[in-house]
Every structure is written in C-alpha cells, then in structure tokens.
Design goal:
Helix content: 40-55%
CATH superfamily of the largest domain: Glycogen Phosphorylase B
Distance between the termini: 19 Å
Structural class: alpha/beta
Strand content: 15-25%
Radius of gyration: 21 Å
CATH architecture of the largest domain: 3-Layer(aba) Sandwich
Shape: globular
Length: 386
Amino acid sequence: MRILFFTHGADMMGANRCLLDLLTGLIPLGVTPVVAVPASGELEVVLKERGIESVTLKYYNWAFTRFISLSYWISSIRQLQNKYQFLPAIVEQTKKLNIDMVYTNSSIVGIGAWLADELNLPHVWHVREFGENDYGMVFWRGRKYFDRWANKAELVISMSKAIEKEVLSNITAPIVTVHDGIITEEAFRKITPQENHDQAPFTFLIIGAIHPTKGQMTALKCFHEVYKNNKNVRLLIAGMGRRLYAKKIKAYISDNNLDAAVNFLGYVSNPYKIHLQADAVLMCSKSEGMGRVTIEGMIFGNPVIGFNGGATPELIDNEKDGLIYNTPAELIHHMNYLADNPDVAATFGKNGRIKAGKNFLIKDFVKQVYQHLAEIFNPDQVCPNE
C-alpha cells in the first residue's frame, strides 16, 4: 500500500509530530509512505533521518486567517495558482510515484482532495482542527466548499468527537473518530511521573503555540490573582508563535512585577523536560481539537485544569484526573485548590497517567488508522497481530 501524505506545512508542530508517529508505525505493517511537503523545513530533515521518502510539491493551504484584510484576495489568487499552475505538475509527479491512495493530514489543505479526484484515487482526510474557532481560519469559498470536497473522500478521520460534532455535521462520507496516540509504550514506561507535588513552589505550566486562542493571557491573569495571596506558586509559559501577542504577555509580566514568579520560556525543543518541572498543566484553549498537551500532562503525572470547550472535556474526568472550568473565576479557584492541596494534585496525576497509558499510546492509534486504511482496499483485511 503506497500512500501520498499531504501536510499543512514544513514545521514540527503537533499535527506533523503526530503524522511522523503514524508513519513510523505504519511502515512495519506494509505501508510505504511518501510525504508531500510544500517547502523545505524541519519536517523534511526529520523524514530523511527516519528514512521516510518525501517530495517537495509546491502548493498553498486553502484556509486563511480572517484577521488580515487582504487574506481573502490573497487566498483566491493562491487557489488559482494551486488549481492551474501547481496541480497539473503535482498530477504528473504523482503518476510517477505509483500511489495507491492520497491521505491529507489537515482540513486546511485542499490540494490532496483535488489530486485524488483527478487521478481517481481513494482519498482519506484527517481533520484535526475546528478552523474558525481554534485559529481564526476561514476556508476559501467557505465551509460548504470544504464539505463538498470532504463528501468525496473515501473516509474522513476526526481527531475528536468535538470536531466530528461541530465541524463535520454536514459530511455524508464515512466518518470515524480516532484520538491521536502521542507516546510509545517503551517511552511511557521509561518516564518517571511526578508523584510528589508538595514541594514549594507549586508550579503551573501552559505550553503550546503562542496564540490568542490558546489562552496564555487568561492563564497569566488568573495566575496573577492566585499569586497575590500565595507567593509559593510559579507559572511557566512555553511555546512560540504570534510575536505581538508574546510582547503583550511579556509586558503584562513586567508591568505587574511578576518576573520572579513567571518564566516565559519561548520555544522549547524538548517539551518533556518542561513537564518534569511542573505540578499542574493549564489548558486554556476554548476550542482545542484534541489536546496533545493535556495528554502529555497526564503522562507525567500532572493534573490538568482545562476549559470546558472543544475536545478537552473528552480527555479530562472532572475531579478524578483533572479539573474543568467555565469562567476565569473558576480557573482561579481550581488553581488555588491544587496549590493548597498537593495530595489531591498527586491523586489526579496518578489517575491521569493510568488513563494516558490505556488510551493514548501510538501503537493503538496506528492500529486503528491502519485497520481503516486496509478496509478501503480489502474490507476483510484486519490489522496483523502484534
């Protein structure tokens, strides 16, 4: 089974990290992946290191940010380039690759759907984002245009029940929900989870793309309220992204004399090291497609305080392995509660780690995806026994 995978970019952010894990697991099962990248970058380097074939195919994403006034016109020009300039060349290159299937790893990439239609190949679409709600992205020609092309897919994979409900309600193509696996069984066993949360200072962590929709400013302001009455707390902010938003965060830290309590780390190449420094993780995104950070927190034995929106409530059992909040006041309350009750934080953390080990291993994620891919070619085929 030779599959051409389309990515939404050349970085090593969450979607592409999950794709790499998927490809690494699919290869032993007889899948030969070829990864299409729109430009050179870190992803291309990692693919080469892992011995995975890649091909640079020029194309543009078909979703754009609504915060830039010229985005619609720029996107329209780019889609014309996609269709009349880039697609014919991609068709010819794909014919030489002897591809059996096209797999698009993000809903904001449309070129894979067009290519599959041109070559009459089965197309699998892995939808990982809300689009409008999580990154302020608007689809070229609107959501109905996406729906039209998604309905031509052989299969649509949703990263969460929340995405299936909110984004894919008009899709008539077959839909399955598969949560990403984010860690190998071997790596999971090697991690020594946090078991002692009573050593001061109690440290909160918010990690991910620096973007207004991720809620770093909400976390910071709520932490400020907690810190006013408890000087034995700290906040770590890790990630990279919007520069103006990052400047706003740094200005708030400086203006409110929080430099000793808040550490803005910026980009971290190894997020696992940061999780080891934390006692609890904050998930303040209001429309998280799944929540890799939430699961990472659980893996390291850290309870997660998450907003009651997107897929976060799918992952957290409130008052068992974490806490769910609806308002900033509730977030402040939950932060105070865990900081004042480290034994509860430890119990939540242990429960979360058990859940992560049962539900979010890469091998299980790969097995589910493989079974769906195999069924497209042979409905009677099942995943080989391990």
